[in-house]
Batch of 2 targets.
Target 1
Amino acid sequence: MKNKNKVWWKEAVVYQIYPRSFKDSNADGIGDLNGILEKLDYIKSLGVDIIWLCPIYQSPNDDNGYDISNYYEIMTEFGTMLHFDALLEGVHARQMKLIMDLVPNHSSDEHHWFKESSKSKENPYRDYYYWRKGKNNLPPNNWPSFFGGSAWEYNAETEEYYLHLFSKKQPDLNWENPELRKEIYKIIEFWFKKGIDGFRMDVISAISKDLEFPDVDLSNFINIINNQYSNGPRVHEFLKEMNQNVLSKYDIMTVGEGPGINLNNCLDYVGNDRNELNMVFHFDHMFLGHGANGKYEPTPWSLIEFKNIFSLWDEKLKNKGWGSIFLGNHDFARIVSRFGNDNNYRIESSKLLATLLLSLRGTSFIYQGEEIGMTNVSFDTIEDYRDLEALNAWQEAAANGKDMGKFLNGVHQQGRDNARTPMQWRNTINAGFSTAEPWIKVNPNYTEINVYKQENDPLSILNFYRSMIKFRKNNPTLIYGEYKCLYPEDLNLYAFERWDSNSTYLILLNFSEANILFEGDISSSYQLVINNYISPNERKALRPWEAKLFKLDK
Ligand code: ISL
Ligand code: CA
């Protein structure tokens, strides 16, 4: 009998697509659904099981589709529902699954619900959003938005403010209202009936608000998210209702996103007995180095902290829930620039990060371009950036008299556009992404770093990902087995074991440019099965950014 703890979404490797930047099929400089369809064989060739599409719904694109004006229609730039149906069919025909992004915390201000809601206090849609009176001509409280400025916007017609935790074009939906909740479940059902295989749920941790709307201590934004915006009083009640009403009726997967989901509360979301979500994305490792002055003024952190985060999460979730493993997505820097070395050891460290990503317990998520070692970009001027988060932060920093050279450097390191430059397909104009000028500039290093070049090179990062994905699938101990970190206090080496009753794996990852030695024992019955260097060396020795995976069959 099949063990009920073993399910497809635990064993899956997911490939995340940011459609705007993946492939343009009709020469308007914007990636689209047909472009993804063209590339399905490529995606399949990676060995992944699931494609996750960032939002493709109708949207005025204030935040690239995370501001939805119609949840039942496809964004005009991306194509039509016919294109979507063809894409879904193409994915399924290749024995892959498709999950979409659900954005239920906020809509666009151009959604008809919001247009109605802002007309009058009596409008039947008024209560779909949070409207509050101001205090002495000021917003109802001092909450800051994720994207700068107040989280409240005044509406002169009805003389009240509405809440928007993100941009003012992303008003927060009022989940207290049962009618609104029904609308969301209807949307979910609509897409499940079309045959999609699940949802990644955007900022799901924030759907329930503290209705007292108390003022907050403004000194540290991450604390505000943790203590106020996330994990509101009714969030679990809402998720249970959603699960019971729609999710539980389909064989689908869910992954909830949300800053504020942490070690103390994660099991409330994904515990086996909770009937809420299958897994969540947490940001403990992604927020490393985000100091009190925010992400654009990063502070130092160490490998010890990084390792500890993965160890604590594994310990917390084992046997009780399930985790997700990712190192990057469309909101963060490129993984090789952030956690590896994109200078002298780009190839080695990209492969090392792939080894980590695909040998930890949890569902693995790869973000487009990671598989060829795409790097951060350093545009010379802020004019070349498109992300409203960076642009707003830039204006705020300028108004506060900050050193703007230093700030631009912060954007180079941490900006979300690092992950949004077009996918680098070939060494031809616009990296083969589009024949027209792309909506955001390509990274000039596409001449060196591109899919075409790596396709036929057996030693490329791309082919390393392919073999590492295959290896994970053929060695389920890497999916379900136990985990233990060795030498957690070592500053350069991430060493860990994975094991079950059949086999043991020892993974050694040198996160430094130094030549180092593993101090533990590697008995001769351990076989070296994965290595990111070709020439052999002493078993315990690790060259700069070297990754070794040993296997012992019992
Ligand atoms: O991007 C972040 C840090 O720079 C995160 O704090 C991010 O804002 C947060 O995780 C929520 O992200 C999600 O919702 C946003 C959208 O802009 C992001 O792209 C999305 O992933 C609003 O919908
Ligand atoms: Ca296009």
Target 2
Amino acid sequence: MIVSPSLLSADFGNLARDLEMINHSKAQMLHLDVMDGVFVPNISFGFPVIKYVQQLCKKPLDVHLMIVEPQKFINEVRDCGAEIMNVHFEACNHLDRVVQQIHDAGMKAGVTINPATPVCLLRDIVAQLDLVLLMSVNPGFGGQKFIPNTLNKVKELRALIAETGSKAVIEVDGGVNDVTGRQLAEAGADVLVAGNYVFKASDPLAAIETLVNL
Ligand code: DX5
Ligand code: ZN
């Protein structure tokens, strides 16, 4: 399993220490949650913080934009060294264009859907995507409870990907732990995001390894 720990649950007073832990871990990516207080009812951190993270972190950056009009910030995300730029389906009026612009900027394109957005709405875009991010909580906060219907959505998305010949990987974000992680692995997920399960663990390296081994 590919694991992308979510920095949102890190200790921001000891960010360099937590990033050093990530560098020494088996995590294959680092997940960064940008929130604007409009698309979601919370504000997190922005590009100056991600630039600092990029200097210290050796893992590829998986940037999840929970903001309105994400197309305005494609160059900023690229300049932060992001490997993957995730935009919300619900935040883009012209999603096909945004995906093209992300690719033109040299990044992998990910599209995220909220728990109430059906997988079938991705039918005409999924072949162009490198990643689909399924939210398994309503976005905005770490530490929420996993929504079980996500397991059905993973299976449905796996079938849609096969049917359309898409190369997209399936990432799931929210309430992931060893139990829900195992269920997601069985359902067909490729990438697990985990915030609280990793950063609030007494042994974060072991928590990451548990998920990697699923
Ligand atoms: C929620 C964020 C998640 C969050 C996950 O809006 O997108 O990435 O950090 O946190 P946990 O794993 O604690 O649910
Ligand atoms: Zn996220």
